[in-house]
Each structure stands twice: as structure tokens, then as C-alpha cells.
Amino acid sequence: APRSTVKMHKRGFAETVTLAWQTPLLGWILLVEIATLSYLWGSSAWLPAWLRDEHHFSLHATGMLAAIPFLLSLGSKFLGGVLLDKMRPEQAPLLFVAGGALTALSVIALMLSHQPAWLALFMLSANVFWGLQGAAIPAVIQHHAAREAVGSAYGIINGIGNICAAFIPLLMGMVMRSVGSVSSGFSVLVVSQIITLLAGGMLLLRMRRAAAISA
């Protein structure tokens, strides 16, 4: 947008934080952030142990191949950003709905697979579909937050999201201990992506309704 010549009133710290907490649909956005970060924290903590202990992967032998899932998720985040630039702002939560559903299905298939080739395929596809969602979160926040408090709103959402998601590896460990297998803990990641799907669906409905009213 062209640079505005209108001078903005500089708000104080407390006023900026208050404005950030008043961001519309903050609760739903925060829920999506917690759910998406839960996948990152949970898979990073337990995926290597699961591949080693239940499927006898040699982590030493994989070498540079271990970087492929992370590189694919980075590429899919870029792709998600490109898709967002082609979509209307109120359509952004579609990435949460589609990405959450496809990631959940990929993790379920990963839990049920035993052949190394299928394990690799579903592990990579889960990371790709999860990565698609990444760029949509700051885009939705920027669309809703007050102009003077966009950074503060994202800081609040990302900070709380990481604090909550940090407990996901512990929750996965508790499930593994009660069931007796490492793969059972990945059901927590499936639930997190279902939550992403549902919260994204609510955001989509609310944002479309708001766009229709303002049109």
C-alpha cells in the first residue's frame, strides 16, 4: 500500500498490550496456534525414538536424509504463503482446515504402517501438510489485529502457543506409558490436528460472515 502521510498516535506499552488482547477472534487463533505448535513439539521430541525403537531405523545411517522432512516443511510453508497471496483474506483459514485434515490422516497412516517405504512417505507427507498451515497464522493475525498492535498480538499468541505446546511431549509420554507402545503417543498429534481443523473451520465461518456483512 502507498505510504500514508497521516501520523499515527504512538501508544504506550500498556495500551498496546491491551489493544493486542482485544484482537477479534483471538481465542480461536490462539487455539489454532497451540494445536499446530503441538505437532512440532511432539513430533520433534518423539519421532526419532519411535523410528529407532519400534521400527529399528538406524539414526546414524540416515545421515543427511534426516533433514529432508524439515526441508520439505520449509518448502511447504513457502507454498502456503504463495497460496495465501492468491486468496482473499477471509479464505486464509482454509489452510488450517485442509492442512489439519491431511496431516491427521498422514499421522494415522504413519501409525498403522510397518514398511519402511510407507513410513517414510507418510512421515514426509505429514510434514508437508503441516507446513502449509504456517504462513496462515501471522496472516490471520495481521488481518484482525489493530495496526498499532500486530506485533504484540502475534507475540502473545506465539508465546502462549509455545508454552502450552511444550507440555505435549509429556502428554505423549503419559499415553505411551499407559498403552505400552511409542506409536500410541502419536494419537495426541492426531487430536491436535483435528483441533486445528475444527478451530480453522470456525475461523473460516466467522471471517466469511464478517466479510459478507462489511461488503
Describe the secondary structure blueprint for this structure.
Layout: H1 13-21, H2 26-53, H3 59-62, H4 68-86, H5 94-112, H6 116-131, H7 136-144, H8 150-165, H9 168-179, H10 187-214
Helix pairs in contact: 1-8, 2-8, 2-10, 4-6, 5-6, 5-10
Query: What does the average pLDDT come to?
Result: 88
Low-confidence stretches: none
Order of helices and strands: HHHHHHHHHH
Sum up the overall morphology in one term.
Answer: elongated
Q: Gyration radius, to the nearest Å? A: 19 Å
Annotation field: number of helices = 10
Query: What share of the residues does DSSP label as strand, in percent?
Result: under 5%
What proportion of the residues is helical, as a percent range?
over 70%
The span between the termini is: 20 Å
Structural class: mainly alpha
Reported for the largest beta sheet, the result is: none
According to DSSP, the number of beta strands is 0
Give your account of this protein's structure:
The chain has about 220 residues and is mainly alpha-helical. Helices cover about 75% and strands about 0% of the residues. The chain has 10 helices and no strands. Helix 1 (about 15-20) packs across helix 8 and helix 2 (about 25-55) packs antiparallel against helix 10 (about 185-215). It is elongated and about 60 Å long. The two termini are about 20 Å apart. The mean pLDDT is about 90.
